[in-house]
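Please check this today:
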Amino acid sequence: MSDTRRTFLRHSGVAAACVLTPALAIAREIAQAKTGPEAEKPKGDEGISPDEDLMREHGVLNRILLIYDEHLRLLAAKRTFDGSILANAADIIRHFVEEYHEKLEEDFLFPRFRKAGKHVALVDTLQAQHKAGRDLTAKIKELAGVATLKLVSTDSEKLSDALREFLRMYRPHEAREDTVLFPAFRTIVSAHEYDALGDDFEKKEDELFGDEGFFKVVDKVADLEKRLGIYELAQFTPK
């Protein structure tokens, strides 16, 4: 091999190494980043914030309220219905909304607002409404248990009253939380604490309802809507 060719190849190799070394270093950094803590979220961690988590759970509550609305309509028309649908809806309220969602608010949000001295009167009202809601849920569940049979007039009136009171209280209740309490929550905790609570909420949800627990509950609600005949969204569009 001529000296000229050897010199050319040696210089070419050095040049290539100079170009490839930074590129390989960058590639290694990317590969290491992909195996780091941000590469793959822990199972069950959907990476959503605490207020987003709570607000989507309000979406489940709202769909149950529509089921309650439909039963009020049936009661007003004096039509018989399958009481198990209403009883199952009340069960979702009991286990998902009251024992899980509201428990998160009472254990993690309300004490922090009281400690910060912010929205204390609102928090006190919300907590009192949680208690009132649990009493109403107990009434609805009890009366729904006999609703497959033709309800006597007094039972029908009691059930209608309980449904109406629940609807009247929870629509402004959740609206005030969504527009006042949840947006303010970020301002009273540190960014680290805020993110950690989001992870804690997801873990608790999975503990109680299994992996992808939220979506399992949504599927249960959808099944009740289908049985009741109110699942298709298009039916709510004005003609």
Q: What stands out?
A: Confidence is low (pLDDT under 50) at residues 14-21, 30-44. The longest helix spans residues 83-116. The CA atoms of residues 53 and 198 lie 8 Å apart.
